[in-house]
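Weekly structure sync, notes
Attendees: PL (lead), two postdocs, one rotation student
Agenda item 3: pending single-chain targets
PL asked that the sequence for the first pending target be pasted directly into the notes so everyone works from the same version. It is reproduced below exactly as submitted, 64 residues in total.
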Amino acid sequence: MIEHNELDSTCGVSDDELTERFKEAIRIDNEIKRIKGTPIAGYDPKNKRAFLQYPDGRIEYVAG
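Predicted structure, written out during the meeting:
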């Protein structure tokens, strides 16, 4: 007999729907950070480096 817990199930939500919900949650979180004036973490695939973007538009690459 196979036992399932709540983490084994997506409650009937498709992978595409979960992806869309995740993207929307990130968008909302970034909007909240802009309003609060805190930096938003990002990644520049061209330079292959992580960065912080401040509400004034300034970007600082993370050392590492």
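Discussion points:
- The helical segments are 15-36.
- The chain has a mean pLDDT of 86.
Action: rotation student to compare against the earlier draft before next sync.
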